[in-house]
Amino acid sequence: MKIPFFLAPLLLCLLVFQVQGQNPKCNIQDHGSTLQIIHTFSPCSPFKPSKEMSWEESVLQLQSKDQARMQYLSSLVARRSVVPIASARQIIQSPTYILKAKIGNPPQTLLMAMDTSNDVAWIPCTGCVGCSTTKVFAPSKSTTFRNVGCGSPLCKQVPNPTCGGSACAFNLTYGSSTVAASVVQDTLTLATDPVPSYTFGCVQKTTGSSAPPQGLLGLGRGPLSLLAQTQNLYKSTFSYCLPSFKSLNFSGSLRLGPVAQPKRIKYTPLLKNPRRSSLYYVNLVAIKVGRRIVDIPPAALAFNPTTGAGTIFDSGTVFTRLVEPAYTAVKNEFRRRVGPKLPVTTLGGFDTCYTFPIVAPNITFMFSGMNVTLPQDNTLIHSTAGSITCLAMAAAPDNVNSVLNVIANMQQQNHRVLFDVPNSRLGVARELCT
Ligand SMILES: *[C@@H]1O[C@H](CO)[C@@H](O)[C@H](O)[C@H]1NC(C)=O
Ligand SMILES: *[C@@H]1O[C@H](CO)[C@@H](O)[C@H](O)[C@H]1NC(C)=O
Ligand SMILES: *[C@@H]1O[C@H](CO)[C@@H](O)[C@H](O)[C@H]1NC(C)=O
Ligand SMILES: *[C@@H]1O[C@H](CO)[C@@H](O)[C@H](O)[C@H]1NC(C)=O
Fold first, then answer.
1. Within a 13 Å sphere around the CA of 393, how many CA atoms are in the beta-carbon half?
2. N or C: less crowded end of the chain, CB within 10 Å?
């Protein structure tokens, strides 16, 4: 159902009121440099689906968003030349986890999607034509708001910059949508840390329906990202614990800066691809299903800065995608271990599903210097009725130029994932988000 735009704010207020009335957890205050993160489907999220969805429907919806996400990631890695970081396709995709940010002075509270494969931040602004949201940032109410001028070096870091008067602006397209934003600066406050003069895109106009409604906070490694703009404060270090979307009442956390990061954690080196500077590449060397290391052609896992091939950790993709030969090897061994003669069925993009209880093997991702054995909560999805169980991974879609393995958020849930850029390493430790 399409909601008339003039009703949307009202509906949101009702929704928020109702949700917060029901669930005191929605009102949690962020402390220090730690922010609460919630799933977009959480009862506390204004972006949760407007109607009650069945389990199958929500899985299929997440899968279809993944399809767009994979196209977006593949378009990044397939790029032939160095282009400005905040390119059109980088800005928009389907965000899964959101956090609370305050912008301006006095601070206006907005929800932003957290995205490790994006650099730039953007938010819908007052007067935005076509924005489907709910809550926008009002620059006129902030004393610290500034436009970025066309002459500023910052203006060169956005895609197709244009000059409206003397202010820097850019237009971009995504799927059937277009977005026009101006490049602006204001204070961004995360938990209790103010970051003065944060540069972001103030969205003025969107068309079509594929642009996501909320703001987005880019946690990539490139210029204009949160890391780049908070060098002194957070030292390019952060970690998160993503709550499971099965326990929607749980929230996770985003911990910014080197202080209070876990000491007991296993690391693998972060690999740097100068041509895809926002992505967090790691070296996935093998995959174990049960006790067997499955037979994957080395080329399917190899890091190649020229083609963009390799493996990334991404917060915005829901289900792990492996390039076809790698996925086939994992799936075949998984099926063999579950029972080679047992009937297998499909659900949307999942091709290894069972309509009866199974004993599933554990899956271990073997990275350089770090083995991560995933609890079955991270590898299997079960319908609420318990009638169907699927291996929650898939082959990279073959309609995109896929050379990329993506360790997605379902496989990261209830783990602390630490991005330690100064020491070029990524850490993973089991942790129950609460
Ligand atoms: C979430 O919490 C609300 C109220 O606290 C409760 O009614 C609901 O059943 C909980 N949902 C889940 C999935 O635990
Ligand atoms: C960008 O979009 C705005 C709003 O739709 C439009 O007025 C402007 O002409 C566009 N600029 C370019 C360079 O396409
Ligand atoms: C999977 O790993 C868990 C602990 O990580 C262990 O308790 C369990 O027995 C393993 N399952 C199988 C089928 O090996
Ligand atoms: C990972 O597992 C493999 C095979 O089980 C083992 O040989 C290797 O030493 C382990 N690596 C680490 C860093 O524990």
1. 27
2. N
How many angstroms does the Cα of residue 367 sit away from the middle of ligand 4? 9
CATH T-level fold of 9-255 = Cathepsin D, subunit A; domain 1 (2.40.70)
| Residues with C-beta less than 6 Å from any ligand 2 atom | 162, 171, 180, 205
Ligand with the closest atom to the CA of 379: 3
Instruction: Report, as an integer, the average pLDDT of 324-342.
Output: 97
Catalytic site residue from 30, 115, 186, 420 = 115
Which segments within 175-234 are labelled E, that is strand? 177-190, 193-207, 215-218
Give the containing element (helix H, strand E) for 8.
Answer: helix 8-22
- Report the pLDDT averaged over residues 135-147: 95
Is residue 186 annotated as a catalytic residue, yes or no? no
Give the tokens for residue 263.
């000491």
pTM for this one?
0.86
Instruction: Please give the mean pLDDT across all residues of the chain.
Output: 83
* Residue 357 DSSP class: -
CATH 2.40.70.10 in the chain, residue ranges: 9-255, 260-430
Q: Is-contact 361 334, C-beta < 8 A?
A: yes
User: Does any ligand 4 atom lie closer than 6 A to the CB of residue 369?
Assistant: yes
Q: Which ligand is nearest to the CA of 249?
A: 1
Architecture of domain 260-430: Beta Barrel (2.40)
* Ligand 1 first shell, C-beta below 6 A: 22-23, 43, 248-249
Digit-coded pLDDT (tens) for 172-208: 665 556 778 999 999 999 999 999 999 999 999 988 7
